[in-house]
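Case study 2.
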Amino acid sequence: MHKIIQNLINIQKEIRSNLDNSKLVKVPKIIAVSKTFTIDKINPLIEYGHLDFGENKVQEALDKWTNIKLVNRNINLHLIGSLQTNKVKFAVKLFDYIHSVDSEKLAKKIFDEQEKQNKKIKIFIQVNIGNENQKSGVSKLSLPSLYSYCKSLNLNVIGLMCIPPLDKSANIYFKEMNKLNKDLGLSELSMGMSSDYLDATLNSATYLRIGSNIFGKRS
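Prediction:
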């Protein structure tokens, strides 16, 4: 068995064991974050039947995934990085999920492109949960307003997304995100990466964004 497949299986077992001990029942989906990895490194997971993959950059994703998605229509491609408005038309065409909506301007651009392309994308609103100047995401105070605006456009907002601060316990922020998500009545929650996905699962994450623990370290 290929090493990255075994890595994925080990992570899935670890998550199930973690959830069994906590008496939580919903097993989150794993987004294999394939950014910077070439398609030959990703192919074993595709052949194994894994369906959810994450990319940070639109152009890189276009180069890697356009032909593959024509052949493998069951693959779900997730944009997990920041999205510039001038790349929205390409993102809407290729991706199935966008995890990084953080402004009314971006939301409106996605709406306009969906209308043009007759396609509906699943949307996460990114929250700057640690109020960090260097990170994208809407503030907690502005979240209800942005959510209302997205709903007024009839965007398919399914949940919230965050990247917690590196220098503090992620668990504190995951708990807060879980509460924000429930307060809005949303069912999906995108949080947890290679360093903190077990904490995320215990706070009702439904999508985990795991890269290096599956593919290995990036060069």
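Residues 3-22 form the longest helix (20 residues).
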